[in-house]
Amino acid sequence: MAPLAGAGAVLAGAAAVALLSAVLVLYELPLDAVLQRAFSLHKAHSIKDMENTLQLVRNIIPPQTSKKHKGQDGRIGVVGGCQEYTGAPYFAAISALKVGADLSHVFCTREAAPVVKSYSPELIVHPVLDSPGAVHHVEEWLPRLHVLVVGPGLGRDDTLLENVKGILEAAKARDIPVVIDADGLWLIAQHPALLQGYRKAVLTPNHVEFNRLSEAVLRDPGDGSDREAVQRLSQALGNVTVVRKGERDVISDGEQVLECAQEGSSRRCGGQGDLLSGALGVLVHWALLAGPEKTKGSSPLLLAAMGACSLTRQCSHQAFQKHGRSTTTTDMIAEVGPAFHRLFET
Ligand SMILES: NC(=O)C1=CN([C@@H]2O[C@H](COP(=O)(O)OP(=O)(O)OC[C@H]3O[C@@H](n4cnc5c(N)ncnc54)[C@H](O)[C@@H]3O)[C@@H](O)[C@H]2O)[C@@H](O)CC1
Ligand SMILES: Nc1ncnc2c1ncn2[C@@H]1O[C@H](COP(=O)(O)OP(=O)(O)OP(=O)(O)O)[C@@H](O)[C@H]1O
Ligand SMILES: [Mg+2]
Fold first, then answer.
1. Mean per-residue pLDDT of the chain
2. Spatial separation of the C-alpha atoms in residues 195 and 242, rounded to whole Å
3. Could you give the C-alpha distances from 11 to 1, 21, 33, 222, 223, in angstroms and in order?
4. Where, by residue number, does (6S)-NADPHX bind (predicted)?
5. Contacts of 318 (CB under 8 A, 6+ apart)
6. Among all ligands shown, which has an atom nearest to the Cα of 88?
7. What is the pLDDT of residue 46?
8. pTM of this prediction?
9. Is the Cβ–Cβ distance between 168 and 195 less than 8 Å?
10. Ligand 1 mutation target, pool 84, 208, 209, 268, most atoms within 8 A of CB
11. Residue 246 annotated as binding?
């Protein structure tokens, strides 16, 4: 039956194109001009969608006033950083500060801590992640944190991953939002039940991480568009928000699917995803705080994701204009302020 049905579809498709061509000949319009117009209409439509969404992102940004105390605009915790990877947690934590958080903590291994501290005096660094009391230590800090970003530079050591499992359980018990990236996604691929149905979680997989998660969660990810694949993964995880990074970022909470096509650059140096995860941590806090009047019925986490994706790509664009081939993530971080202003404050 299937081959016959397939042949029927091909014949029907060919007949439709023939009919369309005939009509176009009648009106003296070339087929490629019509198709081009149809696609540019589609493109214009998605640019309009993106602009509407960015307008809502602007709504969730807390106003800067003289009435606030330190900490109100965001206290973010990054869980990651081990012997091999010290740059990733630094990039995530400093990006959170540069976007506008007031305090940024890093929970990393004992060995990684002095290295991360030496990059920046602005970060608060806890050398606890490989200690037997890791979960307890982070748990003590949780009441003072708004969001956890879990995974940048975490590595895949079993003891660390076991500790992170405990930290995630503790965060969920307190209803603290979590952004899961990098090796945090490796952990979720091994234990998807850890986040099943937790609506305050956002996953930010790159190409490889997305395929690994889909394999683990859906077994047979099947065919279909990028949009469908992301939506399916989100649904299978109980509507956690999924941000698949790539040429276009695809974002879904299982119900809606958004795409971010903000112009970035062709530079693919490591660390850009870490910048995104730290920025997202702050925006998640702001979006959840904003309330329905500001978000106008849109999912706060989708708005936060769209904001972080647009910002990261704009940083990449601006840094590339200045540094070209030699652009690195440090150059992008220097653009966070101007890029944020350009996208959300003008
Ligand atoms: N400066 C730093 O400290 C950085 C650390 N990072 C950390 O590095 C850790 C690993 O993350 P990655 O995203 O690099 O993941 P992987 O180490 O799994 O992959 C790194 C790259 O290797 C390639 N690759 C992966 N599997 C491959 C295969 N089977 N065959 C051929 N090529 C393959 C892909 O290009 C992939 O992007 C994470 O903890 C991450 O946060 C990154 O965030 C980059 C920056
Ligand atoms: N082909 C591409 N074209 C344009 N932008 C891209 C492309 N691929 C990724 N990006 C952008 O680069 C940023 C980081 O995505 P990427 O897939 O490199 O993450 P990552 O591999 O997790 O990075 P990291 O090295 O920090 O771990 C995102 O903002 C994404 O939109
Ligand atoms: Mg990454």
1. 90
2. 12
3. 15, 15, 24, 25, 22
4. 153, 206-212, 274
5. 332, 335, 338, 339
6. 1
7. 67
8. 0.89
9. yes
10. 208
11. yes
Residue bearing the CA closest to ligand 2, atom 1: 247
**Cα(330) to centroid of ligand 2, in Å?**
15
Write the pLDDT tens digit of every residue in 107-131: 999 999 999 999 999 999 999 999 9
Strand order across the beta sheet in which 178-180 lies: 124-127, 103-108, 75-79, 147-150, 178-180, 201-203, 241-244, 249-252, 257-260
Pocket of ligand 2 contains residue 246 by CB under 6 Å: yes
Length of the chain, please?
A: 346
The pairing of strands 103-108 and 249-252 is unpaired
Under a CB-based contact definition with an 8 Å cutoff, are residues 191 and 184 in contact? no
Beta-strand runs (E) in 60-207: 75-79, 103-108, 124-127, 147-150, 178-180, 201-203
C-alpha to C-alpha distance for 299 and 295, rounded to whole angstroms: 7
Q: State mean pLDDT over 239-251.
A: 98
Q: Is the ipTM of this complex over 0.90?
A: yes
C-alpha of residue 334 to centroid of ligand 2, in Å: 18
On the question of pLDDT at 7 being above 80, the answer is no
Nearest CA to ligand 1 atom 32: 208
CA angle 251/256/260 to nearest 5° reads: 35
| Domain chopping of the chain, boundaries | 73-345
CATH architecture for residues 73-345: 3-Layer(aba) Sandwich (3.40)
Residue nearest to atom 14 of ligand 2 (CA): 273
